[in-house]
Amino acid sequence: MFNERRNQIVWQNLFLVRHGESTANEINRFAGTIDAPLTALGEAQARRAGEDWQAGDIDRVYLSPLLRARQTADILLQRDGSGEATPDFVLDQRLRERNFGEFTLRNKTRLQRQFGLRNYEAALYRPHGSLQDGETIAAFNQRILSFL
What we know:
Layout: H1 2-12, H2 23-26, H3 40-49, E1 60-63, H4 67-76, E2 88-91, H5 108-115, H6 117-125, H7 137-147
Parallel strand pairs: 1-2
Helix pairs in contact: 3-4, 5-6
């Protein structure tokens, strides 16, 4: 009973936020592990997500070392160098985006047409789908779960 209550308390204040739109998202391409920065829309999305948050409400922020994640977190928590207390940022490689291998920086719509929707989705989402030089969804899930 104690462990169940402790787990409820620990997870009670967990917030998961995805980065705002990146330059790769804007043109419908897989960024994967490429350091694609936020667009103006992505910056606005981060500001909007952080409207009701104060940096003092957050103890620690775990994030991918990719630029778009760091930019989103900086905006979200208004880390602007003003000297106000902000939570610790902990970069963790396990939170980086999936490596899409041969799909990296390629247009998603064109890939769907080239491979057919069924094969495209199989490569991306089947547990042992094949992305040449990429990471399977099973390996990606395992990496994320190891973080949690």
